[in-house]
Design a protein that fits this description.
- With 747 residues, the protein is mainly β.
- It has 5 domains: 108 residues, Immunoglobulin-like (Sandwich), CATH 2.60.40; 221 residues, no CATH class; 66 residues, no CATH class; 117 residues, Jelly Rolls (Sandwich), CATH 2.60.120.380; 108 residues, no CATH class.
- It has a 10-stranded parallel β-sheet, with no helix packed on it. Strands 24-27-32-35-38-43-46-49-52 form a 9-stranded parallel β-sheet. Strands 1, 2, 3, 4, 5, 6 and 7 form a 7-stranded mixed β-sheet that branches.
- The longest helix has 30 residues.
- The chain is globular, with a radius of gyration of 28 Å.
- The N and C termini lie far apart (83 Å).
Length: 747
């Protein structure tokens, strides 16, 4: 009797367990339904307001089944819920919800709900509200068209060794370009902002992406100022502000000096510098090589390699110099007036391998006015000592101090963003340079402690690995790191690394010249397959997190710098030039900032897979990012690269949340800005225009096929193909193959 009851009870338990299992499966199936996506466009994270200000929280949400309501919360309390005005669900819904600010630090979050009742992950920002009498200037609460807010939420980068990325199996629809604010008028060659704009809101794919929110608190005592430097150095007064305005009448004041710069390919072809004007024979014209000038200081090293002079009857100029060099890079000209009067002159520079002219750049208070003002982006970086703090109520102070002494010597770099972005300076801990330099013969196979290069020395294929270690260039700027063929001059793997002040020279493997590049690990099928990506070698290979590459110059090679499976890195104030592939190649990069860099002259001609010859492109780019997330590009320059900036989402893994702010592209023969099958691409204050140094115009201002894109304020599109035509062809994936000016096939 008891046995039968036990068997009956067991049977019922088995049935109940099966029902529970089925219920779990049903729940799992339900949770696989896609969530809505929502982003906060305004205000920026970290914005400051005064008590009583009315804060307008602008958000944009999308969902394939339609968004039915948006919920606004402050500090976890729901303040209001709003539905579309029509009362019906909308696939894309932009909304402004207002809140009256109260004193303190506040967490603002918004959440979207679709027709099925599924809620999105909240979009979150943190703002600060000061008392009305505190006198803090508030951040304007004007709604802006920012695609997402993740990148404008600065926190100290958390060490990251593993990156969670969408897999290739992620299901993505094939979206058409979703664009907001695209100018309808045709831009002119003077890069004047268009006066009208139209907006569309086309629904797109429903792929989801969870954006990580790293948090860390720097333990330092330095408090950076909220305002930029008081008075910027006037243009031309030192090498960092060297002019590129040639062939114009210029006045040099008495007892003063004016600097110019130009690019030279280093192929031993002649350089000619000429100066004309009444009284110019009383001026000095001095020429310096790239190795002699460090833009961080005002005085060059050593005597000039050239001085102007000559007989006008022989040269045709009042002051003239000509020469040649095997060294490529940025050359400088100093015009010196030691008289007691101002002198009017006109300077020109020419040569088959010389690039010089007026940069066409957006106007504004940070840049200057008119085309005569040079645009020389430079990101401000300040330092502060690193001081480990002793935890409160810690009774082992001697042990703590001993531990602190064993830590590697560190300092804090504060990286400043343009003030208009409302982003607080970003603190990053970096190693200090050693006092003594390490000669080439003393460098180990693997560098695990920081080294400084010795002056007038040549190093080959340096390998850095570890945490809080770095490689520093010599203060004289004469040390060179070299790599030949399919190798990198510097390979850096680890965490909190620093590469600073290096001069790197690379060369492309002869077997790779004239061939179509492969931007992926492998291209082609079967026996015809061949490797690509970082296999070509170049200047720097960075596989690291929380690291900085700063004030580095890389010339030549296939790749200037490659970042691979990396996160929370800062690429700041570098110059990558004359690569035959990519000035900056990035794959699976996360939360990486590219600030104040030059990605110039990355181009090649080749025979493509279709056996056709292409004069430009061949998959080259100034900046390329494949399947990248949370990327911020500010104040970068790209000149005459095959394509200038390219966010790539081919292969089912889109690039996501890539913001372009105040970047320039001049004379790109294919596309200035390109985004394929990517999401959350945002453009503001960028320029695509003619290269006035050579007269070469850019072909397409942008190409955004299959991507979700927002065009924000003050983009200047002045290429051969107008903005409206470029947008239409992007949406329809129209590619002419006849070799006309609209041809994109040599990409």
């Amino acid at each position: 009797m008891h046995i039968r009851s036990f068997r009956t009870l067991s049977l019922w338990l088995l049935i109940a367990s099966f029902g529970l299992l089925v219920g779990c499966d049903a729940k799992t199936t339900t949770s696989s339904v896609s969530k809505p996506q929502i982003v906060i466009q305004s205000p920026f994270a970290g914005s400051q307001f005064r008590e009583g200000d009315e804060i307008a929280v602008q958000s944009t949400s999308t969902d394939s089944t339609g968004v039915v309501r948006i919920e606004l919360m402050v500090d976890g309390v729901t303040l209001r819920t709003d539905a579309p005005p029509s009362g019906q669900s909308q696939p894309s819904f932009t909304l402004v919800q207002k809140w009256k600010a109260t004193t303190g630090s506040h967490t603002i979050s918004v959440r979207a709900y679709n027709a099925a009742g599924t809620a999105s992950d909240p979009a979150i920002i943190v703002i600060t509200v000061a008392q009305a009498s505190a006198g803090i200037a508030p951040t304007p609460a004007v709604p802006l068209s920012i695609a997402t807010t993740t990148l404008f939420q600065p926190t100290a980068p958390a060490p990251t060794t593993a990156v969670q990325l969408p897999t290739a199996a992620t299901t993505l629809a094939q979206p058409t370009a979703t664009v907001t604010g695209i100018p309808t008028s045709t831009a002119t060659a003077t890069a004047t902002p268009s006066s009208t704009a139209t907006a569309t809101a086309t629904p797109s794919s429903t792929a989801t992406a969870t954006l990580p929110q790293p948090t860390a608190t720097p333990t330092v005592t330095f408090t950076p100022s909220r305002t930029p430097s008081p008075t910027p150095t006037p243009p031309g007064r030192d090498p960092s502000r060297a002019l590129i305005t040639y062939d114009v009448d210029t006045v040099i004041l008495h007892n003063s000096r004016t600097w110019y710069r130009f690019e030279y390919r280093g192929d031993r072809t002649p350089i000619s510098v000429a100066m004309n004007g009444f009284g110019t024979r009383d001026l000095e014209m001095l020429i310096y090589t790239p190795e002699q000038v460090d833009t961080r200081v005002t005085e060059p090293r050593g005597a000039p390699v050239g001085r102007g002079g000559g007989n006008k009857a022989q040269t045709g100029h009042d002051v003239f110099w000509t020469g040649a060099s095997p060294l490529g890079g940025t050359y400088y000209i100093a015009i010196v007036n030691q008289t007691d009067r101002a002198i009017l002159y006109r300077l020109s520079v020419s040569g088959p391998a010389v690039t010089a002219g007026v940069m066409e750049a957006p106007t504004g208070p940070e840049i200057g006015s008119g085309n005569q003002a040079p645009y020389t982006p430079k990101i401000r970086v300040e330092t502060s000592p690193y001081k480990p703090t002793i935890p409160a109520n810690f009774d082992m102070v001697p042990d703590w101090k001993e531990l602190a002494q064993r830590l590697p010597p560190l300092t804090i770099y504060y990286i400043f963003f343009p003030p208009e972005l409302g982003i607080q300076p970003m603190p990053v801990s970096v190693p200090l340079p050693p006092e003594k330099c390490t000669p080439p013969e003393a460098v180990g196979v693997i560098i695990t402690q920081s080294i400084k290069l010795c002056p007038n020395s040549t190093y080959y294929n340096l390998n850095l690995a570890g945490k809080s270690v770095g490689i520093f260039g010599d203060s004289a700027g004469t040390a060179v790191v070299k790599a030949d063929g399919r190798s990198f001059a510097v390979t850096a793997v680890g965490e909190s690394l620093l590469l600073q002040g290096l001069k790197i020279q690379s060369s492309t493997d002869p077997n790779d010249l004239g061939k179509w590049l492969c931007a992926y690990e492998k291209c082609g099928d079967g026996p015809q397959a061949y490797p690509g990506s970082t296999v070509y070698g170049g200047g720097i290979l960075l596989k690291a997190s929380g690291s900085i590459v700063k004030d580095v110059t890389v010339t030549g090679g296939t790749t200037g710098i490659a970042t691979l499976d990396s996160a929370d890195n800062y690429i700041v104030n570098n110059r990558f030039m004359y690569q035959t592939g990519w000035a900056s190649y990035n794959r699976y990069a996360v939360r990486t900032h590219f600030l104040g860099n030059a990605f110039n002259y990355s181009n090649r001609s080749c025979v493509g897979p279709d056996r056709k010859f292409y004069q430009n492109g061949c998959e080259t780019a100034g900046w390329l990012c494949i399947s990248c997330r949370d990327i911020f590009l500010v104040d970068n320059e790209c000149r005459r690269s095959g394509n200038c900036y390219y966010a790539n989402g081919d292969g089912g893994v889109p690039s996501f949340n890539v913001k372009f702010f105040r970047n320039t592209c001049f004379g790109a023969p294919n596309n200035c800005f390109e985004a394929t099958y990517s999401r959350g691409i945002y453009f503001e204050k960028n320029v695509a225009a003619k290269d006035l140094q050579t007269g070469q115009n850019c072909n397409y201002p942008f190409w955004v096929g299959g991507s979700e894109v927002i065009f924000g304020r003050d983009n200047n599109w002045a290429c051969t193909v107008g903005a409206s035509v470029a947008l239409k062809r992007s949406e329809n994936s129209v590619e002419n193959q006849g070799g006309s000016s609209d041809d994109k096939s040599g990409k």
